[in-house]
Amino acid sequence: MSAYQPLGGRIFTKPFIVLFIIFLIGCFFMYQRFVVGGMGAVSNLNDGYAWGIWVVYDIMIGTAFACGGYALAFTVYVFNKGKYHPLVRPAVLASLLGYALGGFSAFFDMGRFWQFYEIFLPGNWNFNSAMLEVGLCVTAYIIILALEFAPALLERLGMHGLLKALNKVLFLIIALGVLLPTMHQSSLGSLLIAMGHKVHPLWQSMHLQPLFALLSALIMGFSIVVFEASSAAVGFGRKPETPLLAGLGKAVIGLLAAFLVIRLIVLMVQGRLGLIFAGDFASMMFILETALFVVPLYILLSPTRSRRGSQLLIAAVSMLLGGAMYRFDAYLITYNPGPGYSYFPSAPEIMITLGIIALEIMIYLVAVKLLPVLHREEHA
Amino acid sequence: MKRRDFLKLTAGGTAALACGVAEARPNLEANDNAIGMLYDSTLCVGCKACVAKCKEVNNMPPEIDGDKLAWDSARDLSDKTHNVIKVYKNGTATVKDAEIDGYCFEKRSCMHCVDPGCVSVCPCTAMRIDAKTGIVTHHPEVCIGCRNCMVGCPYNVPQFEYDNVFGQIQKCEMCNQPGVERIDKGMMTGCAEACPTGATLFGTRETLLDEAKRRMALKPGEIYNYPVGDVRKPDKHHEKKVPEYKQHIWGEKEAGGTNVMHISSIPFDKLGMPPLEERSAASVAETVQHTVYNFMALPAIALAGLAFVVNRNIDDDDDGGDA
Amino acid sequence: MAENEFDFSGLEKRLSVSRRTFLKFCAGVAASLGLPGHAAMAMAAAVADPKKRPPVIWLHGQECTGPTEALLRSEQPSLEHLILDLISLDYHQTLDSGAGHQVEEIKKKSMQENKGKYLLVIEGAIPVKDDGIYCKIAGETMLDLTHEAAEHAAAIVAYGSCASWGGVQAASPNPTGAQGAPQVLKGKTVVTIPGCPPNPANFIGTVLYFVTYGKLPPIDEYGRPKWAYGRLVHENCYRRPHFDAGRFATEFGDEGHRKGWCLYKLGCKGPETYNNCPSLEYNNVGGNVWPIGVGHPCFGCSEQGVGFEKPMFSLSRVLTHAPPNMFPEIESREDVSGMSTTAAALTGAAVGAVVGATAMAAKKLNEKEGDQD
């Protein structure tokens, strides 16, 4: 008997229908984008801001939100912390959805989507490009995530032979599942290097971009596990897994501290500390962003707070927002291609992104109800 | 918990990183035969002949600015405009080439960097440096439309056809794109040919740099015989008083230099040129990329280590079959 | 009706023009001066009144008599009659029927009798080198004659480029030290009508203005009447659209030249020359007859420092764009849209939903944990 079981229950709940409506609106605008007028018809993308929320939210931040599987794989299989096992499968599902839909977003953000395969032809590869690394690595990781999640489906379908075969190579799949996100999450930072002066000095750490991207991805990965588990506890009325989550919280402390300290040191070495207190828009964003990282550090360092589920959730959401802001700030909000350019996503653009998020949550809801994803509750 | 294992893994990784560290990638060097252009803003009279010629050569439609104007009036580079003349204005804007109360024109077109950001970041090699001419070319047949070239370009030159479902990147290819091939045919770029004053001067990067340096050395007020057309064999010359040039050849060194260079009597930051250092961002990005991914050695070693550790930990695990 | 107050019968006889033709002429002149409709009537009345005719002293210096010749070939209805009768031309070396001592006497007498009332027209440059010995009329230097005549003139008009700033005589190396009337007559207001030859219409208009209103029309810093010299040739040139579109003739007889494209590349000085040639063309020949109209670049004949100084085919400075209003500024961009309210609301709602949901979830978790404790 598996340690996991489908949650069961009605699929077409009220929240599901609301999400479905949002998704439909998104679909309408996607139709506009692919059939009627191209990206210009639905987005505010322009010559200065070639990347809008589709890239920065759906891919840069969306995949970081989908780092739960990565963070847990690291914890469980590299650091051999078996007690976190119950959290792995839902995290892998969320990661699979996050990455798969990130990949889909890449497709509709892709200006020449009909020849997307060109990036997979080795003859075209430009090994100097971080984007190539991201493109190939993310694709590979989506496949790896699918394989990591396959046991849930195979169990449900009763295909035990295949399950056994998969288990034999599982170590390699998991190893790749740790390596690939390390590679492309850091490369998402490397993309910023080539943008040079367009990235605000407070965010332009040049050589250290990959490190910050990786640290923030891991922080967000751990946070999303806490967030998902807490949401499941509240949404499905399950018993909170607070002790486990508290353990994850401890793991994040080091990462958080490293992120903040290295960031300050880098700014100090670059002689840019003054910019933090310049009082302009960028400095406000920096302070807000840093506050979103400091608040969870405060919560997690407190022995009493760090054991309370509600506080952990607040810390997790704060870190998720902080990580999201770090990427939003660097890629969009303080990104400056030159005087005269401006960008704020258009309503249709936002609706497409919200549609994708809605789809992601919908599939998640269906999957946990139909497939053995969530851990069997002990007292059930 | 195997702290020692992890430390070993980390140490191994660091060692691999140390072996794998590629030499820091310096800026690319200019091609000796690279062709280029020299734009002298003090010679530009704002006739926009280059803009019109560019549209003609590239067979591009006019850019109509809303209902305000009825003729080609692009405000900036666009998917229909590879070349545009913009203006710097200050105060009363009555004195040509004066910083205060003056005005001057500035040309916007691809600078054809010696170490181009767009080429460095393109995942599919859709942006290339032509080995013979140094022209930065675009190849839509392999482009996926990720638009990294747009964000990777310090000058925001590549333009995407957002309003076309099946759009592509557009940029100046110095009139040597397939079907035009003016350079291969021994002709000048359209804009240099059309320019009545030699404000856009054609030539090799080397000869143009010499010409620019010559102009820098001139005394303001003396008469100089300015060449028009190709600096190596000018169509004609015209005499003009030398203005007070700023001692700065834009594109000599900026981010590794450019094949299209600008000189002016107004500081370049006022003309919308970006704050660039001599080291190209592309070279830094590639140094990082090649340090981490040199021959994929580091990822391979990391994978081996991870596979070993994971395999042992799965076996340790009581839950066995569950991933 | 106002026009009935004037007696045109005498005028019709005197000028041998019909009343209708005469009024048309006055209306045309008034319009080209940019004056309101009633000015034409005032002008007609002034011309019709013989008592208002000012005596004119007309001096010739170093020149080719081009301005006078141009004036004589004016195709306005009976223009020479009009000019000769409109003013009392007391002294004019080309047109006077008398000669020698006789006309010099008449000049002296007229200047004496009409002190402070006569109009002085100067045609030709005035050499000042070596006390002005390079141009003498009736034994006196042009320099002295000019000073003498200018002393009691009611108004001074320098007619032609030579009189305005020296013209071809003043071109380098200027061996005779030729100067224009404004340089010689420092401190006096001199209206200049430059051009080589100048457009007679600009002269007639200015004189009519003076006759009508008893004062000179508004002039610029070089003494040029603003109504005639307020705009660059380039501004009203019929070939201007070709300039704006970047279509240039590059050689005489090439495709662009045959198609009537812009002559800038051939050295057209229109962009730095102030004159009304594109609007008036030349001497009412019609059929677009003026230099640019017949396919030759503007020479800049009426512009000091351009005509006779810059080589014919050298490029001109383009002054049209000072200040430049038809160009995108450095910071102007294509297709940059701002933040829409809907988008802002959606963003706010999304962030609000996340924060709100977290707050609610945290509260519920708190309750659950409270149960456990």
- Whole-Å distance between the termini of chain C? 110 Å
CATH class assignment of the largest domain in chain C: Alpha Beta
Q: Enter the CATH topology name of the largest domain in chain C.
A: Rossmann fold
Biggest contact: A-B, 89 and 76 residues
Apparent shape of chain A: globular
Quaternary structure annotation: heterotrimer
**What is the alpha-carbon Rg of chain A in Å?**
21 Å
Structural classification of chain A? mainly alpha
Major pleated sheet of chain A = 2 strands, antiparallel
Q: Could you name the CATH class of chain A?
A: Mainly Alpha
CATH superfamily of the largest domain in chain C: NADH:ubiquinone oxidoreductase-like, 20kDa subunit
Summarize the structure in words.
The complex is a heterotrimer of chains A (380), B (323) and C (373). Chain A has 380 residues and is mainly α. Chain A has one domain (4-375): Up-down Bundle (Formate dehydrogenase/DMSO reductase fold). Chain A contains 14 helices and two strands; from the N terminus they run βααααααααααααααβ. In chain A, strands 1-2 form a two-stranded antiparallel ribbon. Chain A starts with a strand and ends in a 5-residue tail after the last strand. The mean pLDDT of chain A is 91. Chain B is α+β, with helices and mostly antiparallel strands. Chain B folds into two domains: 3-26 and 283-316; 35-50 and 109-278, Alpha-Beta Plaits (2-Layer Sandwich), CATH 3.30.70.20. Chain B has helices at residues 3-20, 49-58, 117-121, 148-152, 190-194, 205-217, 281-293, 297-316, and strands at residues 35-40, 84-89, 95-96, 102-108, 127-129, 136-138, 159-160, 169-170, 200-204, 223-228, 236-241, 260-263. In chain B, helix 1 (3-20) runs antiparallel to helix 8. The radius of gyration of chain B is 25 Å and the shape is globular. In chain C, strand 5 (136-137) and strand 6 form a beta hairpin. The model of chain C has no long low-confidence stretch (mean pLDDT 85). The N and C termini of chain C lie far apart (110 Å). Chain C is α/β, with parallel strands linked by helices and 373 residues long. Chain C has helices spanning 8-15, 19-32, 37-48, 66-72, 79-86, 100-113, 142-151, 161-165, 181-184, 200-213, 226-229, 233-236, 240-244, 255-258, 277-280, 341-372; strands at 55-60, 88-92, 119-123, 126-127, 136-137, 140-141, 155-159, 178-179, 190-193. Chain C has 16 helices and nine strands. Helices cover 40% and strands 9% of the residues of chain C. Chain C has two domains: 54-228, NADH:ubiquinone oxidoreductase-like, 20kDa subunit (Rossmann fold, 3-Layer(aba) Sandwich); 231-323, Cytochrome-c3 Hydrogenase, Chain A, domain 2 (Irregular). Chain C has a five-stranded parallel sheet, sandwiched between helices. A two-stranded antiparallel ribbon of chain C has the order 4-8. Chains in contact: A-B, A-C, B-C. Chains A and C meet through helix 9, helix 13 and helix 14 of A and helix 16 of C.
